Amino acid sequence: MQVRHILGDKGGNVIGIGPGGTLAEAAKLLAERRIGALVVRDGGGALAGILSERDLVRAMAADGASALNQSVERYLTRDVVTCRLTDTCEALMEMMTTGRFRHLPVLDDHGHLCGLVSIGDVVKSRIAETEREAQDLRVYISATA
User: Fold this and answer.
1) Which of 33, 50, 68, 124 is the most exposed place for a label (fewest CB within 10 A)?
2) Domain count within the chain
3) How close are the terminal C-alpha atoms of the chain, in Å?
4) Residue 122's domain is classified under what CATH number?
5) pTM
6) What contacts 88, CB < 8 A, 6 or more positions away?
């Protein structure tokens, strides 16, 4: 299964924040939307980074409560690993496991941001695929018996 299929089921809505937003605003957005990461876009709409719950924890550990008043730009992850619509679930699992992160921005064929997938999305997709394969095998076995 490819990333395009995951986004087909999930949708391409990407929740984000500007680099000038505060960590307090980011934390509130993460909590309200019940998500684990925000895409950070620059003034032109290009991907500038990603801010995850882990980034928030690191900011708080480094600077305490005062970090909440600081800009997202100060704490975001700049070297963002991305994926393409044609990447497979297996490739995503490998990237996420090796890189030890849970969210991947998705770029289209032109390099524009078109979605965000989480490890939960990938696992859900793999489970559905496995269940379909098992059902296909049951149908095949019952047809040949």
Assistant:
1) 33
2) 1
3) 30
4) 3.10.580.10
5) 0.85
6) 1, 2, 3
The DSSP H or E segment spanning 51 is strand 47-52
Residue (of 38, 119, 130, 33) closest to 83 by Cα position:
119
The whole-number pLDDT of residue 126 equals 86
Do the bridges between strand 37-41 and strand 47-52 make them parallel or antiparallel, or are there none, so unpaired?
Answer: antiparallel
pLDDT digits (tens, 9 = 90+) for 16-71: 999 999 999 999 999 999 999 999 998 888 899 999 999 999 999 999 999 999 99
Of 124, 86, 75, nearest in space to 108 by CA: 86
Q: Please name every residue paired with 17 in a beta bridge, in sequence order, or none if there are none.
A: 40
Quickly state the pLDDT bin for 139 (edges 50, 70, 90): confident
DSSP label of 80: -
The H or E element containing residue 50 is: strand 47-52
Give the per-residue pLDDT at 145.
63
User: Residue 113: which domain range?
Assistant: 3-144
Phi, psi of 58 (to 5 degrees): -60, -40
